[in-house]
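Co-fold these.
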Amino acid sequence: MIRTHDAGTLRATHAGTTVTLAGWVARRRDHGGVIFVDLRDASGVVQVVFREEMATAHALRNEFCVQVTGEVGRRPEGNENPELATGEIEVTATELVVLSEAAPLPMPVDDQIDASDELRLKYRYLDLRRSGPGRAMRLRSRANQIARTILHERDFLEIETPTLTRSTPEGARDFLVPVRLQPGSWYALPQSPQLFKQLLMVAGMERYYQIARCYRDEDFRADRQPEFTQLDIEMSFVTQDDVIELGEAIVGALWKELADHEITTPIPRITWHDAMARYGSDKPDLRYGVELVELTDYLRGTEFRVFAGAIDAGGYVGAVVMPGGASQTRKELDGWQDWAKARGARGLAYVVLDAESGEARGPVAKNLSEAHLGGLADAVGAKPGDAIFFAASTDRREAQELLGAARVEIAKRAGLVDENVWAFCWVVDAPMFEPTEEGGWTAVHHPFTSPNAEWMERFEDAPDEALAYAYDIVCNGNEIGGGSLRIHRADVQRRVFDLLGITAEEASDKFGFLLEAFKYGPPPHAGIAFGWDRTCMLLAGADSIREVIAFPKTRGGFDPLTGAPTPITAQQRTEAGVDAKPKPAGPTAGTSGVAAPVEPS
RNA sequence: GGUCCUGUGGAGCAGUUGGAGUGCUCGCCGCCCUGUCAAGGCGGAGGUCGCGGGUUCAAGUCCCGUCAGGACCGCCA
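Predicted complex below.
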């Protein structure tokens, strides 16, 4: 080692010790006759003092990489710095070696100053020298370790699965990789290891996990990157409760150690339907109340056409209350209309209750009968001074989701979110299917998700009502993990495919290898996958998953550091077989649509 | 694909109803300085105002287009 101690570990007990340190110049304070340098390494910062005889230190600049030898001493009386862990002492240098110099910095390596995202990503190696970003990396490493410890204690095997594979049917667009040895054929990068982990269950591994990189070619967000990580888990011979118990053990350990928060177990469970009815979301933020109230029956018979139209068509009318919302200006109330329109709704009807008289006012109030207005406050649980927002639609879920989004916005604007609270829940009993635009059905989770016991033998009777053994774990309104019991009976799988309109040929073409495996005694199995970036983001208190990824990409999928993606050369293009000519006919492939097979070129 | 915000020396920001010279803080370079910890003092260098077009006597400022970054919707478990 070219150093004897880590800078951040030095304490008063080291006084009198001669140490050699190595690290970076975090800051220098040059007084002419004496120079102070804050020396930073991964462990922290310590003040190094250069006296007159160490004149070479004048040439030091920020972020020079240096090796310093000197004696640890207590700082002179009154010069201690209680802000620093090493603030009681300093190192008086007797030797200085500049290991490497630093050019003028394109961005400050300083915890105080914030640079733009693009610049931070371009110089991510400088960004990560800062304590906040560096801490996020260390936290994530620790999170991995905690999860691995729990899983190994429980006899899980860490098994890697391919990243060059064929499409698995998660539903997102695949990233594709041309195959030089078979021009015209392509690998897909996995959207998740879903099918492989099920094969590992057939293989008798019984307990599998992997911190797995996944790839989805969709539009990106603050919490979505083209490549992301799942803590992926699958177990044989278990029930839903077993998976949930494991999930709670992992989450409990993570939050205990990394967020200093003891999660009360069992984590409350709410059914998907209750979550939609009460919170208008399948990932409800339970840090605050502001629950939805259904008014379909209460308002039955109303002459207000917006509501009557929805009710008569068998739809839904509901409301959500904004505490104190009556004090909003006309401009603010109009702002809600723009807010609603921005997410595709026609608008957001509202009534405000006068703070003194409790009288209902606002454009919608004129359209409601005396009787409806009279009991409204009680029906929705509103007080004088509150505002009531309404949504009505023939599509129950659509109206609930609008109110659910309004609920989140209300909490934000009314300051109801307590940032110090961690509110977890499991959302269980999710629906198996949802209707497609073409009048068919599609799997909400994925087509291998098992119907629950109640629906196992009759999900075809009412596909819109059938429930699955599927569960999501939600933290403060973020889905951090989800999973399901899988179908292991061939007959049930066949019936699900039938309902989804997947023929035997198509099924065999898309994932025949899994169906083939399921012929040979597949065990009952279930699993869960945690969105690891999102989980670490929450633990780090960050508001973007970019903060917990070492080298993230921008919204456009661009990496400002490497400049990826780049065009390829003509030679690469030819060798990769990107332009191989399609054959007129042949066996199909891919996850959907007709494949374009090729002639060898 | 849609809506919105941002783009001004290396960094972070200001720039009024369009009007004389684009200003501040940090950093950078030089000099001074023995107890600072966001050290201080003096001096200096550094800018196609993202890019293209238009309106105007005159555009950093107004309009159109475009590029880049960000937030959201659609999409995506």
